[in-house]
Specification:
This protein is mainly alpha-helical and 75 residues long. The protein is built from three helices and two strands, in the order ββααα. Strand 1 and strand 2 form a beta hairpin.
Length: 75
């Protein structure tokens, strides 16, 4: 049976030698980029839901209140 020489790292997506995959150390930037691409549908959904919330009455109130507190110098 055929055994691949190279396999993708599950954490960062980098191509690593199959016989040396345990010695692989993920680059933090590459790992974040890979995870964002894997989760892109969820990130898009979250952005749409957040935008919809901001356009709702509750969202308008939260925006108004936060800008008021920032102008007053409160947390």
């Amino acid at each position: 049976m055929f055994s691949p020489q190279f396999v993708p790292c599950a954490s960062c997506g980098a191509t690593v030698r199959a016989d040396d995959s345990n010695a692989h150390a993920c680059d933090p930037d590459r790992r974040v980029a890979h995870q964002m691409s894997v989760l892109s549908h969820e990130v898009d959904w979250l952005e749409r839901e957040f935008q919809a919330y901001l356009e709702s009455p509750d969202g308008y109130f939260e925006q108004w209140l936060s800008s008021r507190l920032v102008r007053r110098g409160r947390d």
